[in-house]
Amino acid sequence: MALYHADALVIRSREYGESDRLLTLFARESGKLHAVAKGVRKPTSRQRAGAQLFTYADFLLHKGRTLDTVTQSSPKESFPHLWNDLDRTLAATAIAELLDVATVREEPQPQLFTLALTCFFLLAEVNPFLVQSIFSLRLLGILGYSPRLGECAECGAVIKGDKALFSPTAGGTVCSECRGLFNGKPLSLGTVAFMRQLEHTEWQKVKRLRWSAWMEQEMREALQQYCEEKFEKSLRSWRMGKEIGGESSNNQREG
Question: What pLDDT, on the 0 to 100 scale, is given for residue 49?
Fold first, then answer.
């Protein structure tokens, strides 16, 4: 019997059959996996905790032809803070969705695993939409899709003035000479500079960062459009976050 261990995060969990759940796991060593957790929707199941969204656990799985099966799970962290606040729930969901959309099955991406796990912990004490933005920028960097920021993605010229056109199609900011070639949205150079800072700021310094409401809105919209362009999929949780989230972010921004 082909059994193997996976140190993994649950990034998607949905009902499957009468009492099962179909899990999308992101494992440290083996990347994205799909597995069935049988019987976990029954009240008496001992495996329910390991099938919950965002759970970090050690899984024992049986290799199947199309879907693997969870035979045992030992949760290490359930991240209760991700369920106690709407904005944190929305940000964690957005992180999990982007990780799912941006990766293919069984392709090892240990850097992405570490990034996602770090961000889930960071959501306990840092503005959730700041963490969401950091995750997306660093994921793009790891996968080789970093947007060109502060220089023209078309000709390489340094962007001057107060605003730049941000074009997902071009691959980043576009100067005034090249902007007629691309569609996009204006992005203030203050937001551009902040995005560049987020790509490299040390984790222990992240919670010291300060940003404004208009920078948050600009950056979230720019990153959503950029990621949807690069991965050719709509990010539903990002759109939902803009519609129903953010009410507490103004209070958290200075915290």
Answer: 85
